């Protein structure tokens, strides 16, 4: 008897949708960085730098940001409930953390943080999230409409799974985009319908451009289900004006599109003259309720002043869907049984932090302010550094956690990139990494208008790291330009 020994599973025979998408923030640049890290470990002193500075991800704590004490106090008490009633606990933990942890533990099944919970998330934690949303927006929010999730990523994937029926279903997405969107749309078998943000006007979202894309897509036979808006923007860092948001709300209402509002950077707004407004608040302020418009808002514990990205916490608030749809979303969520508990607890704390009058309030506020003022300092230093480079212009930084400078490279550099079989931004980013140890994401990973080159660099490295990065960046760029000036 003979049988075929060649493995039947190869990269050619797996689901080809997995092979099509790219996710550059964790892509080739990271593989390159890991190779260099190994080299530093095996042959110390062989490279002109001693460490890699990972500016490819918005990963605050990996780059030195300290977690907020109150959040960690509550988490540790929830994981060790027997500590709560011990005498030492009163010396080690704040009264509010003890009180909050006690309340949370009471609401957990079996009063333990190691249990499965409701697939939608623990009810009392969802109530805390809903109350936080209501306090933020000035409009009611219901725990029944909240799903707690393992970060915003899993919520976004879930909504794509719900909305996309076939490749004839299109989802409007901004370009440049956060590449989870194109990846998720491909994986779920839909069609991404891109609309361009306008770089020259500070990455504004122009509604006539969205309309043009919608009409073109409809004319080609697609059914457009939803419009993704990322506000504040990643990688583009802009904060939408309220008038712009009103236009988007009117547009989506008229066209019958769900707004998929990616609001994960809602607590990362740095400009004096703009503030974050949720799409739900804008819609309700215009007088539209759940019968007029469907909105799904995504939020996360990964960003803001908390930066607890490894905890994988988040929520989505679903407005304007019938109970029958909510039931199906619940069923989908139940396939992973439940979101992780630390993430559930954290998102409840993010939406219901210590208040004025609470014992922890002052320390909490100081910690939060320290993160913001330091972030702003680092953003300004990096923005100034990028802007000072020949042929580089840096976007105005209003929100989120990244700079997205545009590169205008010499023809000879573009040719050299071509010879290497890569785009100019990829060529530049790998050269930068090889010379300085600074890992940034080539802008093409976010699919900007073709023919333009950018890099995305997070503002998160600590103050001293930024101070060390700036001269290295400048020296590298000068040498690069000299080499290719011709
Ligand atoms: N939406 C946007 C716009 C994001 O930037 C991210 C993460 C997510 C959703 C998903 O976040 P969580 O799943 O952690 O909640 N952005 C990554 C990035 O671009 N760099 O680092 C994180």
Describe the fold and architecture:
The protein starts with 15 loop residues before the first helix and ends with a helix. The chain has 2 domains: 16-64 and 371-485, Aspartate Aminotransferase, domain 1 (Alpha-Beta Complex), CATH 3.90.1150.10; 116-351, Aspartate Aminotransferase, domain 2, CATH 3.40.640.10. Strands 2-8-7-6-5-3-4 form a 7-stranded mixed beta sheet, with helices on both faces. The protein has 17 helices and 14 strands. It has 486 residues and is an alpha/beta fold. α3 crosses α5 (95-107), α14 (361-387) runs parallel beside α17 (463-484) and α15 (411-420) packs across α16 (424-436). It has helices at residues 16-20, 28-42, 69-79, 87-92, 95-107, 123-137, 151-163, 180-187, 207-219, 242-255, 279-285, 323-334, 341-351, 361-387, 411-420, 424-436, 463-484; strands at residues 53-54, 146-149, 169-175, 191-196, 223-230, 258-262, 295-300, 314-319, 392-393, 402-403, 406-407, 438-439, 441-442, 453-458. β6 (258-262), α11 and β7 form a beta-alpha-beta unit. The protein binds ligand DCS. Pathway: Amino-acid degradation; L-alanine degradation via transaminase pathway; pyruvate from L-alanine: step 1/1; Photosynthesis; C4 acid pathway. This is Alanine aminotransferase 2. One of its GO terms (molecular function) is pyridoxal phosphate binding. Belongs to the class-I pyridoxal-phosphate-dependent aminotransferase family. Alanine aminotransferase subfamily. Its EC number is 2.6.1.2.
